[in-house]
């Protein structure tokens, strides 16, 4: 058996409107345990679709037993789907002895994300951040990594409500109506102002998906920093300017996480 560890991430630029996306990895791990199996995998599950795609493209010729242990809340905009795709494929490739370079691996993950119905853009930005760690900037439509680097591993806090938002549902919004407003976010990230890009991106995307002003207000009080939605959300994020002390659980919040930016990429860890 092999165990892979992959971190989640938060959005810096959402790619729904322009195809340009950016994400920042955070210390929020997902683990996949995988082993070759004599039993057929479940073809109706997301994992089954991931395994089917891997077999169709690389002829793994094997069936696999997969189990997932995740600290990433699903449907909150914290990249649980991208982390899952990476961890499953990374483990399957290791077991099958398949060797590809980073570019080919991420291309496969991107196409699998679309085929499995968990992404409408291919999520190359999210996949790149989860795979390498650190900050990614990608042209998702062209399948190209524009840049990536390792920023300071700062502390941040995350509040999220019970609501879930699936990335696959974002195609129902008319992103063309706000496309022009994303224009300067690319320059902000290239200039190193990714925090400002996150704030503006969160405002733009929440104007389409809905907002949680009370959670933002409460998180700002807790951290002393600016609170913003992570991409499609509904998770709200804030970099911590003050020591974080939670005396009362925030109203309307399902979960509260204190974590940090992570520059650690996918890895095989001891079982």
Set out the fold topology.
Elements (H helix, E strand, L loop, with lengths): L1 E12 L6 E18 L8 H13 L4 E8 L9 H17 L5 H14 L8 H9 L2 E5 L4 E6 L5 E6 L24 H6 L3 H16 L3 H11 L3 E3 L6 E4 L15 E6 L6 E3 L2
Antiparallel strand pairs: 1-2, 1-10, 2-3, 2-4, 4-5, 6-8, 6-9, 7-8
Helix pairs in contact: 1-2, 1-3, 2-3, 2-4, 3-4
Q: Which properties best describe this structure?
A:
four-stranded antiparallel sheet; about 270 residues; Ribosomal Protein S5, domain 2; alpha+beta
Structure write-up:
This protein is α+β, with helices and mostly antiparallel strands and 271 residues long. It has one domain (1-271): Ribosomal Protein S5, domain 2. It is 32% helix and 26% strand. The strands form two sheets. Strands 1, 2, 3, 4, 5 and 10 form a six-stranded antiparallel sheet that branches. Strand 7 and strand 8 (236-239) form a beta hairpin. Helix 2 crosses helix 4 (124-132). The longest helix has 17 residues, at 80-96. It starts with a strand and ends with a strand.
Short summary:
The chain has 271 residues and is α+β, with helices and mostly antiparallel strands. It has helices at residues 46-58, 80-96, 102-115, 124-132, 185-190, 194-209, 213-223, and strands spanning 2-13, 20-37, 63-70, 135-139, 144-149, 155-160, 227-229, 236-239, 255-260, 267-269.
Briefly note the CATH topology name. Answer: Ribosomal Protein S5, domain 2
Provide the domain count: 1
CATH architecture: 2-Layer Sandwich
As a whole number of angstroms, the C-alpha radius of gyration is: 18 Å
* Envelope shape: globular
Helix content: 25-40%
H/E series: EEHEHHHEEEHHHEEEE
How many extended strands? 10
């Amino acid at each position: 058996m092999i165990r892979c560890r992959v971190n989640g991430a938060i959005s810096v630029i959402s790619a729904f409107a322009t195809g340009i996306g950016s994400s920042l990895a955070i210390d929020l791990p997902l683990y996949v345990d995988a082993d070759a199996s004599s039993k057929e995998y479940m073809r109706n599950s997301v994992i089954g679709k991931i395994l089917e795609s891997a077999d169709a493209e690389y002829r793994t010729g094997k069936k696999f037993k997969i189990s997932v242990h995740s600290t990433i809340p699903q449907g909150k905009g914290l990249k649980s789907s991208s982390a899952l795709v990476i961890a499953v494929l990374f483990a399957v490739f290791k077991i099958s002895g398949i060797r590809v370079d980073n570019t080919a691996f991420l291309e496969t993950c991107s196409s699998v994300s679309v085929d499995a119905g968990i992404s409408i853009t291919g999520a190359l930005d999210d996949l790149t951040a989860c795979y390498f760690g650190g900050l990614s900037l990608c042209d998702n439509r062209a399948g190209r990594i524009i840049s990536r680097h390792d920023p300071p591993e700062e502390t941040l806090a995350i509040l999220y409500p019970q609501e879930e938002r699936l990335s696959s549902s974002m195609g129902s919004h008319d992103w063309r109506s706000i496309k022009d407003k994303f224009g300067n976010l690319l320059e902000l990230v290239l200039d190193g102002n990714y925090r400002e890009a996150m704030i503006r991106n969160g405002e733009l995307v929440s104007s389409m998906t809905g907002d949680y002003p009370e959670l933002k207000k409460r998180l700002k009080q807790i951290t002393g920093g600016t609170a913003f939605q992570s991409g499609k959300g509904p998770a709200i994020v804030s970099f911590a300017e003050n020591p974080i002390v939670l005396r009362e659980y925030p109203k309307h919040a399902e979960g509260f996480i204190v974590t940090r930016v992570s520059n650690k990429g996918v890895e095989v860890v001891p079982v």
